Amino acid sequence: MTIRTRFAPSPTGFMHVGNLRTALYEYLIAKHEDGTFVLRIEDTDQERYVEGATDVIYNTLKIAGLKHDEGPDIGGDFGPYVQSERLSLYKPYAEQLVKSGHAYYCFCSKERLDSLHENGLTGYDRHCRDLSEQEISDNLAKGIPYVIRQKMPLTGETTYNDLVYGDITVPNEDLDDQILLKADGFPTYNFANVIDDHTMGITHVVRGSEYLSSTPKYNELYRAFGWDIPTYVHLPLIMGKTVNEDGTETVSKLSKRHGSTGFMDLINDGFLPEAIINYIALLGWAPSDNREIFDLDELTKVFDIHGISKSPSVFDYDKLEWVNAEHIKAMDTETFTAHAKPYYDRYGISEDKYALLDEILKPRITRFNQLEEKLAFLGELADYDISLFEHKKSKSSIESSVKMLEDSIPLLENTPWDRDAITEALKAYAESNEIKNSVIMWPVRIAAAGVAVTPGGCAEVLILLGKDESLRRIRIGLEKIKEL
Hints:
Strand order of the largest sheet: 3-4-7
Structural class: alpha/beta
Shape: elongated
């Protein structure tokens, strides 16, 4: 049997990380077994439809690297792959269930249903479940609007197996007679889902654990039609962590109040697509060897359904940052430069400095948008406070910095402008004057950069600025100190 999974999002807005994890697991389950990954757009909920949301789905999957084998944009043998283009399919199936006694016409008005809820009834009271044939015929002849409801068993229990949670048993009395076909002729999500999954040959249904209790409704539909029930893989919830004012932590279902929860929001925050996918894969799944850094091909090879946890996972932004940093560190120079080049261009950095920047920046950033701050000193010299020259650990003081800057100017003027030569010249000065290297390197770096924290040390800062600009800034620093 060829495994067929489907990702069936509704075009109702942005791609939440929970939806993306579902898509990722569906992709991995299929691809691990050389199966088929299908994209289906479920757009029958017209009230929640958001213009342009379908493009968000396509773009997200493309950027994430989750290439589907069948879908609205590429076709396939089981199309159409957009629910609104399949509307003629659902009513005949609903009518078939009515004829077989597994569904019934419900003529209850919205006012009646609202009154039930106002009186505290959470479900439907099955008022139309046992209407006579004559009553049904009369209502249809009068043109009274109706929905078609599923006729659920009233007693006993329903048990099914899930590959993550094992056997799940639900009392039938807890199952509502859900609507299958709405008054406007559109199918409900639950009904269309079953029809589409069967007619598209979906073998493995992957979805959130919130559907565990409602799955018996799906299975009753499969049994009513005499169809094979698919394999279920329910995924644990993704939770978010909130730090309260008193320092305690509260964990609840992940939402926007916890931070960026959309894929593109995370991209805009500076996270790499491959790092996001890597991290999301670990939210509810663990490899047998506890490895944590993967690319998508590696995930495909090692992914095993049995590694999916039953317990909720907590979205940890610090952990995502660490994963992102590991992906940056693993980049070759060409890839790193491609990501960093927009920032390099902003400061007119020449190509001969790319290798140096790769070396000093790669271990110092966790996201590429941090380059804006780290390279800012290359723009304009900040109007910094001279207290920066004070640094106890480096044995640097404002008084000592005067002599260090005075002596460094002629020293650097006569030094070949490469990193090793600059470093050796400053070290030789420190040795001959019996001082620590940092006593001269700290004030020279501060004067050149105008900030306390720089990517790389003194020699790297000077190389990036260039000889003329470095000496100009050191002279400015010397004047700032002397003005005291």
